[in-house]
Amino acid sequence: MTYCAAIRLKDGMVFASDTRTNAGVDHISTFRKLYQYGVEGERFMVLQTAGSLATSQAVFNKLQSDIDQRAESNLNTVATLFDAAQMVGECMREKMNHAKSVANSSRDGAFTSSFMLGGQIKGQPPELYLIYPEGNCIKATEDTPFFQLGESKYGKPILDRSVSYNTDVRHAARALMLSFDSTIHSNLSVGMPIDFVLYDNDSLALPNGRRIDERDEYFNTIRHQWSDALRRTLVELPKCPDGYWG
Which residue has better confidence, 246 or 236? Predict the structure, then answer.
């Protein structure tokens, strides 16, 4: 299992993915699940994944190979973000079908992956897509500004309560950090380090991003302050009226 989230805001975008993969409690590994593509000043893209690690890596490798070999159509040449999302979906279906044929299996679940693709191409608005295992996709809107993949239920309430389309980018990044902290606390299948990328709309820059591990001072500061604030608020809530519980 994994946890990935991406937020498209009025003034920017935030992406984050954990790096834990596990095939049982005695086989836990770290693999990158967030990759950047683009050309400085022309286009910026982030691709995230959850699901079958083998399928995901096959898709990442194929997309990068097409860029390296200057294929006629690749993530650095497609005309729109929607075209890029379609490309990822087609590549994923191809790799899933190949894996099933090699394994002589009809079970989709063993080879299934999902992806999120976000970014901006020069002259176009920033966009964020959620790409399903079937290869089709949906686009984030002002009413639904973020998507999640994987073990999303523990971190979703924080984002629901604190993030909207007009939220400041840095504020949304802090909310996303706390969303990951909540998920890590509640589910052993999600773990650090976490890969973060923050993008300011229309900059068309390729951010360095940040990998956050257990020693990250800022992350530890806000997670401890958040926990302390929750405990303090619980104590400060109004007491139940006499007879409330019957």
Answer: 236
